[in-house]
Amino acid sequence: MGVSEEEQARLLARSTGWLLNDAARALNQRLEEALRATGLRWREYGVLVVLEEAGPLSQQEIGRRLAVDRSTMVHLVDVLEERGLVARGRDRADRRAYAIELTGAGQELLAHVLHPLTAEVHERFAGRLGRRDRAHLDRILGLLAAPPAGEGPA
Amino acid sequence: MGVSEEEQARLLARSTGWLLNDAARALNQRLEEALRATGLRWREYGVLVVLEEAGPLSQQEIGRRLAVDRSTMVHLVDVLEERGLVARGRDRADRRAYAIELTGAGQELLAHVLHPLTAEVHERFAGRLGRRDRAHLDRILGLLAAPPAGEGPA
DNA sequence: TATTGTTATACTCTATAACTATA
DNA sequence: TATAGTTATAGAGTATAACAATA
């Protein structure tokens, strides 16, 4: 009590959303910076990680998981293919689609360079938090990142 | 034990950072959507909020607080000025700089439309969390959003 | 008819560099 | 000389629409 609804709205607008944005921006900057030495962007690393987790996927499916349009995926995969990190295999069940897969070089780069690099950034970034806070944060963000009930993918 | 360093790195890379990004993106989408009815963008709302908090500021100072270049600020302020939400007053101490200030219309729009709108988005977005989780989240994000020691503004 | 990948195209966002007026 | 604002411009990044091959 003593705080009007308008004041509450003002305070709320100032809190979680802005902090979430600021924190995400701060982390992204650090990640881009760390990856710069490898010539890869954060998004490209994301493609590799998705493939590492899920195995061969079509370009469109990768895009779906990263919220990237299929037309945008073309150039993204081009870059990774030129560097020999992924290969455009054909999906034998549906010959319209590719089966984009990690090459050996891609797997090695992930394991020996990219993951350690990003892990170090995370370490420095989240290092200010205690273990309990980090666990809390992961759990809470997991709740927020999931789509709310009744709002699945199209 | 039983988890290699490489495996740890892989897991770590998969956790906080991605979640942070996903959550921020999800929230931003909802905010942009909610603001669309007002014809304002998330960034423009940000300018108004900064002015409401700090009082009249130069364009460059607003940009500093929002991580926006001064050349980019020009158009941003143009839009808000055309809509009558801010005014370009002159800083009497330094006549090179403007003193951008909220107009009465700007203050009213914030109080009666924009803050309630964004507060509702926050409410729906963070509504899945309990009160304790929300408090936790705000506190932890506050730690992360702050620049680490020895990395202040230029 | 619908879908995958592709291309051309356009649009948004942003920053860089050069200019002006003040300091 | 340095700084606030401005402008022109160019570079990312992205999406839309139309097309070929396949379903």
From TrEMBL, chains A, B:
One of its GO terms (molecular function) is DNA-binding transcription factor activity. Residues 13-146 form the HTH marR-type domain. Gene3D superfamilies: Winged helix-like DNA-binding domain superfamily/Winged helix DNA-binding domain. SUPFAM superfamilies: Winged helix' DNA-binding domain (SSF46785). GO terms for biological process: response to stress. Signal peptide: none annotated. This is MarR family transcriptional regulator. It comes from Sphaerisporangium rufum. The lineage of its organism: Bacteria, Bacillati, Actinomycetota, Actinomycetes, Streptosporangiales.
